[in-house]
Amino acid sequence: SICPICYSTDTELKETSGLGQIYSFSVTRQADPPHIIAYVTLNEGVTMLTNIVDCDAGTLRIGQRVRVHFVEAEDGCAIPMFSPL
User: Fold this and answer.
1) Which of 3, 30, 32, 36 sits at 20 to 30 Å (Cα–Cα) from 57?
2) Per residue in 13-38, is it b (16+ CB within 10 Å) or e — as a string?
């Protein structure tokens, strides 16, 4: 199940294609593998803060196309993360 994590009451679920592009990102290289946090703008226009997974951090670029990849958290929630196409 997808769980809300922002604790706002002003949210809504919206079905999307799961495709988008990287608007901005930051790499923490002290982690192994490096931790990549990013803003991804979905094709539908929504921009979200997320993680980029399953890639080489050195090859990422602004504008790169990505696809959603749901990762299950310990509490069973599905966390949307993205991988390059």
Assistant:
1) 3
2) eeeeeeebbbeebeeeeeeeeeebeb
